[in-house]
Design a protein that fits this description.
In chain A, about 10% of the residues lie in helices and about 55% in strands. By secondary structure, chain A is mainly beta. Chain A folds into two domains: about 1-35, no CATH class; about 35-430, Porin, CATH 2.40.160.40. Chain B is mainly α. The chains are: A mainly beta, B mainly alpha. At the A-B interface, helix 1, strand 1, strand 2, strand 6 and strand 7 of A face helix 1, helix 2 and helix 3 of B.
Chain lengths: ~425, ~70
Amino acid sequence: MAATKKNRRIKTALSIASCSLLNAVAFAEPAFQVNEVDNSILDDTEFQASNMLYAEDQRVIINESVLIAKKELSDEEFIKATFTADIMSGPSPNGLPAIKNPEQADTFTSPSGTIVTPRADQEQTFEFKDTRGAVNLEWQKPLSRLLKTTSGVSLSYEYDYMSLGISSAWSKDTQDRLTTFSTGLAFNYDMIKPVGGAPQPLTPTTNEVEEKYKDKSEIDLLLGVTQVLTRNTLLQINYVANYKTGYLTDPYKLVVFLKSVDLTPVDINPYYHEKRPDKRVSHIAYFNVLHSINEDVVKFSYRYFNDDWGVSSHTAETRYLKKLNDRTELQLKYRYYNQQSADFYHYHLVDGAAPSIDVRDIVASPTDLKYVSADYRLGDLRSDTVGIKLTRYFPDNDARLDFRVDRIINRDNNKRFETVRAWVVQLVGKMSF
Amino acid sequence: MKVSVLLLVVLSTLSGCIVTQVKPWEHDVMARENMQLEHDELIDAMDEQNYYSKEASFGGKGIGGGGCGCN
């Protein structure tokens, strides 16, 4: 144990010495701080606290608070606990578009019990309010000098949703420590208890509920490699396979059935519950490069996503970290996301052809379809994010403060569903003892 | 699937071609805080959650973490 402690101190000293080559003043002081609190119960403990506000214009608002406590047990061994609390509220789209002559359609009760009155001027939404609490525990342990394992359990609870997860990952460094191979498995079991019960899919909204509880499970497999390419460049490549099975339908989403002529509702109750397949297999390739230019860093990542629902997407993100002075860093970010819709996505269903109607939206009856969803998140979605982040280091206290603001714009490539704009504002504090 | 495998093969080959020998005493840049993959751990985790609930794609950076009934 004493030898391990000594090794840790040697490692800390070496790390500080390395960093001090670049920043002698800023990083030399923590060496004395470590020794000063050596006997404290907080020794080798790191805390992170964060508060994030996610606010869509005229729609959903989420306030998320997170606290992380990480305790180093020995060299490269730690336990980490993450506590999350979310408060969510606001109008969320239920899949129904703005329709002409809404007075011809009746009001209806959504699965969550909300009375929905169709409107002509904008997409239909339902009001919701929910809170979420989550706990994640993680334990990393070295099995040998080059091999380490990380095990995790997670629990997340909402009024109408509960999720349990376990994960295990292994990583192996090569002798020269320039390459790391990683692999991991994760299993999740989710229980869904829709407010008002899970509706019978592909039936009008007046129908009885199908069941009270639904569930789904998923498995993740990860294969990855991280490679130091040059003294200044790091490359990471991951492949992830995801398999989901169970209730993958959204109980709160609807699709409307319209006449082709003038897009008025076909009858007094044209609203149908959506239905998605009960299996989904996804493949994800992720590529990430970090390159240091003097003391600045350029980061670029690309992700390709593909699944058997017909969804495929390209995500590219670039960040530039500019060191303003010894203690301050500025980061600029741009993220591009482009998604091809799921095969069963329909903006609306239409009884008969019309020049402006997408051919695949034309059906004689919604019940002719095997699966259908009008959830815009499964549509031909394009998303752009720009962001700015300011980081302030406090080397005297081995602490750091981050403040970021992002602007996200989600729009339809076919210019049908309404553009969603959101602000993300987040403050993160980190302190090590 | 085919595209993912092809992409991995191409990128792995490419990385193999451009790797230069980095000596142990040249690891100073990689040890810097802003060169760590987890540099913005909490911000990245929340971004993942935000995008997961608003887009049909997910994942790539890691695995696990728990689900949500996101609206």
